[in-house]
Design goal:
alpha+beta; 4-stranded antiparallel beta sheet
């Protein structure tokens, strides 16, 4: 994987195993867009409507997560309705299961990453000019580092540790 390239998983369709779709983990903004689309659906507060909302949430997430294999920034489906008209129930179920697995249970050991790839990754990180990063690349690196390091990065936007000690709390 090239640095800065989005990560993806290729999932074959149940209805046609010759077709494989690329799915990527959503950014927080994309995930919130999916939730907002579902929240805007009118309906009663009952079991049937709850099941319908859950189903629609899966479709909204997949509409944003399925990408063009040649350009992982380009969505295949512009709306959940487009996805519904193109895929059958079994395909949507399998794709959502694989998406959930990708974002919740992925790990180096589960993915079978060999030690040589970790060495290449370490080398790339050591050689990277982090000051040259900006936008999405910097944000992704900052989020990654904040999840794997024991102390948060210094970031004036979310509160630097330099000013946290001067902030008083009411007891």
């Amino acid at each position: 994987m090239r640095l800065g390239q989005a990560v993806c998983d290729f999932v074959p369709l149940v209805s046609d195993p010759e077709i494989r779709l690329a799915i990527v983990p959503l950014t927080e903004a994309e995930y919130l867009q999916a939730l907002e689309a579902v929240a805007a659906i009118p309906g009663r507060d009952d079991l049937a409507n709850s099941a319908m909302r859950d189903r629609r949430q899966a479709q909204e997430i997949l509409a944003r997560a399925i990408r063009e294999p040649e350009d992982l920034l380009e969505r295949v489906y512009s709306t959940a309705e487009d996805l519904q008209s193109d895929l059958d129930v079994r395909d949507i179920d399998e794709l959502f299961d694989r998406y959930s697995e990708m974002v919740h249970t992925s790990s180096p050991s589960a993915d079978g990453i060999p030690p040589s790839e970790f060495e290449a990754l370490k080398k790339a990180l050591n050689e990277m000019d982090m000051n040259a990063l900006s936008g999405r690349a910097w944000y992704a690196l900052k989020r990654f580092l904040s999840t794997v390091t024991p102390s948060p990065l210094l970031d004036s936007n979310s509160g630097s540790s330099l000013i946290k000690s001067s902030t008083t709390k009411n007891e």
